[in-house]
Structures are given as C-alpha cells and as structure tokens.
Amino acid sequence: MIHKIKYGIYPNPLPDAEGNTTYQVRHMPEGTMSEKTFLAHLQYHNTYNTVMMRSSLSVLKDEIVEQLRNNMRFRIDGIGTFQMKVGLKTQYDEEGNPIKPHFTDPDAITANDVEVQGVSFTPDPSFVKALKDMTSTRNKYGRGPAGKNKPYTREQVMAFLDEYLTEHHSITRKQMEFGLNITAYRAQKWLDKLTAEEPPKYYCEKQGATYVYYPCSTEE
C-alpha cells in the first residue's frame, strides 16, 4: 500500500534577490496519534502486551531524559538520535515584553544566560528510507490550499483544544501551532481570543519564559 502525502503550499516570508515571492511546501497532518490511541491500535492489530508496551515507553522516555541531562546524545538504531538543544534565555523589558538576547562580548555569556530550549531529533537514514519507500509524492489530490494556512472554525479549534487538554491538561502556543499546523501568529491569535472572551474558556499563566494555557473550571 502506497500512502499519499497531504501537503500545502505557502509563500516564504522574504522575497528572493530579485524581489520575487517564492514558495515552499509543508506537510499537513490530519491529526495526532496519542499514546492511548497507539496502544489501542497495537492491541487491535497485534498480539503485543500493551501493559508492557506502556511500561517500556515510560522507561525509554525516562532514560532519554536522563542521558540528555548527562550531556549525552541518545541513539536508537533504526530510528534516530536525540540531542539536547540549548540557547540563550529570553530577556524581558519592564513591561514584560520579550527581548531577543544581545551579546557583543562572548565572555559576557555565563551559565545563568543559558537554558534548555528543546530536543533536536536526527532520523536514522534507514528510518527516512522506509518512510520514502511507502509514500508517494505523485498525489494530485493531496494538495491543500495554496498561499495560506488551513482555515479553522471556532468549533474545530475548540474540539482540538478539548481533546488535547483532556490528555495533557495544558497547552502552549507552540504546541497549538504544531497540533493544528498553523503559524505562530495564528495560534497566538486564537489563544488571545479565547482567553479574552466573556466568560473565558481558558486562562494563561507564565512559567519561566513560556505562557501556558489551562481550561477554566466549569464548576459554579
């Protein structure tokens, strides 16, 4: 079975050297398989012990975190390599607006200016090959709307948030951006709108340099 790629076409934010608008393609995922759904899928299609699989996933996650903390890369043969991603801490002005760190003297940068910003993943070549071998790029029905993000109705955004928050209890702008495959600007616009309406469906708390959104209680 050959799977077809679903993709959208988007303009690059900056023109080329001649001033022309250039375009890129991005994958348009149709959803996210959660751990719960994954285990149910395994149970339905295979004979794996899902209790053991859940335990193994938990052990694997803990071990990856532990080795990254120890400044090691973590490689899983046939899948890829995980590595800690660090950067300069975001600074804030007196009104709480983020300011991009600006250092002109490398000696001025100390450990207090550095933070963990994420995890990078480099797929194993065999992993990418397996994906390419079973995926077709010749797909005239896979193209999404050109030149714009996928439009969502309020009901669709609320449905996504309800499902996501049921499992994760909170969400960040970046997680919403990734989950809906929309720009950072549009994700923030939705979050601002939903936290500003009366009565608000969600509220925001700042945790370090990150704004985290939670559902408001429905209890009287």
State the low-pLDDT regions, or none. Answer: 145-149
Silhouette: globular
Q: Pairing-aware structural class of the strands and helices?
A: alpha+beta
Instruction: Characterize the largest beta sheet: strand count, sense, and whether it forms a barrel.
Output: 3 strands, mixed
Name the beta content range: 25-35%
Name the average pLDDT: 83
What's the arrangement of strands in the largest beta sheet?
3-2-10
Cα Rg: 21 Å
Strands, count? 13
Intertermini distance: 52 Å
Helix content: 25-40%
Question: Count the helices. How many?
Answer: 6
Strand-and-helix sequence, N→C? EEEHHEEEEEHEEHEHHEE
Explain what the structure shows.
- With 220 residues, the protein is an alpha+beta fold.
- The chain is 35% helix and 26% strand.
- The protein contains six helices and 13 strands.
- The chain has helices at residues 35-45, 50-69, 125-133, 154-168, 173-180, 184-196, and strands at 3-4, 7-11, 23-27, 74-76, 80-88, 91-92, 98-99, 114-123, 135-136, 143-146, 171-172, 202-207, 210-215.
- The strands form five sheets. A three-stranded mixed β-sheet has the order 3-2-10, with no helix packed on it.
- A hairpin with a 2-residue loop joins strand 12 and strand 13.
- Helix 5 crosses helix 6 (184-196).
- The longest helix is centred in the first third of the chain and has 20 residues, at 50-69.
- The chain is globular.
